[in-house]
Amino acid sequence: MENHTKDSTMKVSSLNCIDLANDDLHHSVVSLKQACLDCGFFYVINHGINEEFMEDVFEQSKKFFALPLEEKMKVLRNEKHRGYTPVLDEKLDPKNQVNGDHKEGYYIGIEVPKDDPHWDKPFYGPNPWPDADVLPGWRETMEKYHQEALRVSKAIARLLALALDLDVEYFDRTEMLGKPIATMRLLRYQGISDPSKGIYACGAHSDFGMMTLLATDGVMGLQICKDKNATPQKWEYVPPIKGAFIVNLGDMLERWSNGFFKSTLHRVLGNGQERYSIPFFVEPNHDCLVECLPTCKSESELPKYPPIKCSTYLAQRYKDTHAELSIYHKET
Description:
Layout: H1 2-5, E1 17-19, H2 25-38, E2 41-45, H3 51-65, H4 69-72, E3 83-85, E4 103-108, H5 138-163, H6 174-178, E5 181-189, E6 202-205, E7 211-216, E8 222-225, E9 236-237, E10 245-249, H7 251-256, E11 265-268, E12 275-283, E13 289-290, E14 308-309, H8 310-321, H9 326-331
């Protein structure tokens, strides 16, 4: 916080906090609904993931990024969007960014073996893993975290269903979160951002899927813009809370809710400090048709978005924001 608080123009956002251990379900749903209508960002506490384990996940993430580049390139992102993404690989805001994002990352999805009937789907398949001799126990730690984060995501989805006046288990169905696309991404940010020169740790964007759970190392950097149409846009920092997830809604939930729930623009500015974070992107099943929910339309509120298949939407968004894999093969 220290470096940022010296900036008198800094605005810090105030977000609702959802306690998953709260017995007052009505209070939790009302608070969540308010957050979703306002800006689509909120904190989640008492989620049941041990703090010691979280520290271990971050420690293992740092060990991977500390490896020599040639070691990391052995697990380069593949066509199923699993694996390592080098600095500048992703360009989320091409209108305002000179180069890509000043971050490197590592995508990990649900492990699907080659003999699985769904293996050929674009976002399923086995993950590339660093050599166990180089990073012993790394894979086991990441797979355990993936399972835990998915459990928390499903608990939040049940509250979201109630906030949308749906049955509590609406999103648990096989075609939604019963067999989802759920991808975690380890991230390391470096350098100093300068928006006036088009240099960003992470360019302004909204997330593609249903929702994102963000774990951070406590270093400030995340900003949100509650009104993307404002001129000029107003950006507010989201301060991390120890032990809490920062959760935001994605574009698919905005489409599902007919625009009532917000998928908000956000970005990351670097201040010269290394910053580590782990977003967990929750998307429904490949074949899920994302269309206006029955409780979000009426004679006076017609659907604003055409129905679209989840995998079709995701494939286009990834294509628009990531470098072509062929450039790396040319370099090697």
